[in-house]
Amino acid sequence: MRGENCIMKTAGRIAVILLAALFVLPLFSCRQEPDGESTGLPTEPPATERASQPGEYAEIDAYVKELAEGADTEGMTFTFIGRSSDNFPKEDKETGDIQSDAVYFRQRDLSEAFGLNWEPVITENGDATKDRVINEVTAGGSSYDLVFGNVITVSQHLLNAGVILRVDTLDDYIDLDRPWWVGSLRDVYSIGGKLFILRGDIAVENFEDPTCVMFNKTVCSMFSIDEEELYSLAAEGKWTLDEFERAASHIPVNPTGEGVFRYANFEGIEFIFSCGMTITKFDEDGYPYLEDSLPVEIVNLSDRTSGMFGDRTQTASWDWTKGESKTDVFGVDKDYDWFLENRALFLTASTGSAIGYRQFDVVFGILPMPKASASQEQYYSYADPWGSGSVTIPKTTKSIPATATVTEGMAALSAKYVKTAYYDMLLRSQSIFDLQSRDMLDIIFDTIIYDMVDLYSGGDMDSWGPLMNDLHYAMSYDNSSIVSDYKGNVRVTKYYIKALIKAADGME
Prior knowledge:
- There is one protein chain.
- By secondary structure, the chain is an alpha/beta fold.
- It has a domain at 53-207 and 387-419: D-Maltodextrin-Binding Protein, domain 2 (3-Layer(aba) Sandwich), CATH 3.40.190.10.
- The chain contains 18 helices and 15 strands.
- It is globular.
């Protein structure tokens, strides 16, 4: 049986490598230009071609084997719960679907290495996930070993309910310094030195949720906007708000709404983070708090972004007559028809949206979010709080050492399979039109920014909470009440912060 499993394991790796080659080679042999013509591109493989680096895989395989040898997991059933998503394979077998197969290969290798069975429990949505886990744990049940869910809908509620474990005490089993975990977790999500949330390659959403700017190449051609200059500015660290506005100014204002817009569906709040600002502060003991008054640099930025995106002669507004969202296409919504129809230059989107847009007849490029100025040390891309994937461990898991060790093994195998499938194959290969966009994705993923405000925003599945919602409105539409709204929201939000701290302090 072990021999058969090894053969299956090797076959799975070969399948991933062959799939990578099939999708990468066409990309690097031709490129579609806005006019539909194809031109030659350099034929060298991507700089990060993990499918051709067996040494890296060997290191991960050896690490997982070492973890398994020290774990008491033989015969264990490892149960993980979450909404229907790409964290779960579509079927318990190889299907030819890149996303599903990557997760299937991960779970298959995990089972083989640890001698366990794995069982996914798929819920309708994040609210259903957190309700089932809270009810199960508070009743003393131990059905679930790992919980998948986004930060706002799942993690904040599980933490407030006190039903999850501290992961900073599990360093004998989970090595947060490994590259498959978000390196800033301790600095961003700790509460008084205690950490409860894990983020990294283990959740596929982390490859889909960083913000970026997409630009329409056809519109660039229509208005003589030099796309190579845009890429050069970004590569040289000079892609700033000034350059962003300068490029957009090539397009005249559009008072009738019949022409081309500069921007489509822009969410100005993303610019707080891209300009290197954060909302959450920490005191000397590591507890989160908000300043009583909104920092003046955010007020000034809001004045600027609301002037751009709130002006409907510059920014496309949703036409309700266009009907409902695009069906079954991730990241492509009814709000974005102008971009699809070559009637808008810039679009804020998540990186994962590029996978969805590639299915339509629109030719686009990808850029990082612009800096406040060229003196800003690096670019920053905010990890969207609804899309952002996180995992937590229920405190009633059947065996803490076994669960923590298996979670580490799953994360390591995610770096091998899931990251290869999503980042290298789907994002950096299939979903781009040029080599420069591939390089831009590397910049974006090197500088993702997180903010703990997600955890105490008071939001749920359909709402950001009053603080973030009012900031979003002020940054995107009208900032005239941003100062007074913030002062009122801070008083309310302090309740959520106190509840979060109380929950954290009550867990050891």
